[in-house]
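Thread: "does anyone have the structure for this chain?"

Original post by V.I.:
We have the sequence but no experimental structure in hand. Need at least a predicted one for the grant figures.
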Amino acid sequence: MIALGGSPEGASPTEPIQLAQVTIREQILIRVPMRLRQAPEHPQQVIEWKESRGPKCLPMQSIAGATLIGQNSVDLVLKDRSRVRARLEKSCPALDYYYGFYIRPNADGQICADRDIIRSRVGGQCEIEKFRSLTAERPD
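Reply from O.Q.:
Generated one for you, tokens below.
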């Protein structure tokens, strides 16, 4: 109606019309609970993890937790109790200091190697280079 020469009710023709624009951004971060791997109390409880070829992507909802292995890898514990090792492209020293990290979910609901980034709680970030499937083996 204004474009046709009319004016809003109560506004005088000499008052300028004020316009505003609001941008709303939605940000979702998933915090993955994590703990440091500790040496077992009894030597017979030692489990060695054998790595094999892993998936390219994992469903984000399948991740139950994580264990820090070193500054360049994180073991993801899945809801079905299986494990997948995320190899990082570089060292991430901030991960072990704050015991946790964040993963920003994508529209496809997957976390993928060579695409997604693990973010430490202090702002550092490391790209996931590849995933390796883990199987438990007891040493002789």
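V.I.: this helps a lot. Residues 94-98 form the longest helix (5 residues).
O.Q.: and Helices lie at 94-98.
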